[in-house]
Amino acid sequence: MNFSVSLDKTAKYLSLFIAVFVAATLIGAVLLSEDRQTILIVGPIVSVTLFLAYLWKPSRYEITSEYVIVHRLIGPAKYERSRIINVRAGEPDEIKNAIRLFGSGGMFGYFGKFRNQHLKTFVLQCTRRDNLVFIFTDKGLKVLSPNDPQGMIQSLQK
To answer: Which residues of the chain have pLDDT under 70?
Structure first.
């Protein structure tokens, strides 16, 4: 079963703002700067970083008999259903004040490894900060954000 995703307003506006800001800054630097060497180093690094964030963005979720699959352009992340201990709806407050250990905190979504006092260390594979589904496995907590969280929970509890 497939579950669609969509960016929340914060992720949409943040992604757009950062992309426009970076593009304008690079264009301005090329036109106004005499230090071409710095631009040739910084420009590609920033561009590749933005592109990599886009590649890791969850595009949809799929539940099969064996796996929960997070589809991404970089390749799928697969979580074995046999390792799932519990599944429940999550509240936005539960991921609030999480520190990003590695990943994206709004650019094209919220994904990577995060930590807060309430949940400890967990993996976000989200495009929004609501519609949360908490999947507790023997390898830790995975947090997803499908457009139909109740449908996903029901599908996982079968």
So the answer is: none
